[in-house]
Structure prediction request, 355 residues.
Amino acid sequence: MQNTTKMAKKEIATDITKLVRKNILDMKPYSSARDEFKGEAEIFLDANENPFPSHYNRYPDPLQWRVKEKLAEIKKVKPEEIFLGNGSDEAIDLIIRAFCEPYRDSILITDPTYGMYAVCSELNAVPIIKVELTKDFDLDLDTLFSALTTDTKIIFLCSPNNPTGNLLSPTKILNVLDQFKGIVVIDEAYIDFAKTESFVQLLTAYPNLIVLQTFSKAWGLAGLRLGMAFASKEFIQILNKIKYPYNVNIQTQEIALKTLQDCKKKEEAVIEIIRERIKLASDLSQLALTEHIYPSDANFLLVKVKDAPGTYRYLMDRKIIVRDRSKVTLCKNCIRITVGTPQENRNLIIALQKI
Ligand SMILES: Cc1ncc(COP(=O)(O)O)c(C=O)c1O
Prediction:
């Protein structure tokens, strides 16, 4: 396996420019005077801002270096190996846009999985190949490899997967990384709730790897809109080249930095959410309507019930919103329930007991 990895590394390292769309490779990105000036300036008359001081009269740092330096320490990567965007949804869109030629290059996704890969793909006129997961929601490698075409540029793997909640087998993911010559994106939005390590540490071994994470789940900052992509410096440069110049605002950068300086709150929240997830699964299993609770490595549970659309509407009438996933592949009669506070989970169970 080491040999294969070495070979792949060499091949892909020389090929990165071939993976990028030609117009993007050739284009000149937007540049500001602040990109060109290095050092501590005193007077800023370059960006047509309002000069009278308020907290927000200046544009933010376009490359968010202070946040990246702190994040790099925590994730044990280099700041240049991090992209920050308006949620990881921005990174998903930019990755597809940067590497897939519309109407020609395809992406491969698993079915079921997170909906935005398909949305961004359709938005960018990029064909989608869907490969059904196995009955226990793992990768079916034979089907996956035989579905690839010479125009498949990106494979999206979501682990833990949304909406199923489980981790994909790490050995199978490694197999994909070893064999696929295009880009493998591993979306780890829920990794903090999982019992395995992140793939971020494998960036050096696999130059074709991009790992996505987010501040929206364990970090408790969904409203802030901040997502992360970790990849080789070369990949990150491409994403930075095509993003909007000031895609992460000043307030988001400040709050993210402050949050990263003390990870304790997030770690405590993760422990509490996992504890509640176990309790919620146990309480749900006592209910007559529950047919199956799928194992979860995320902050939600996929639950098979007798009548998912009916249960969904019943809860909605009682002002409790869950997600009806019954039309999703392999998820017939399933609802997806996010783990709430202890009180919210109790209220949910009380409501369900009355069905
Ligand atoms: C798997 C997965 N990836 C990405 C996202 C989007 O995250 P963000 O809020 O960072 O855009 C979600 C949101 O639910 C998700 O489930």
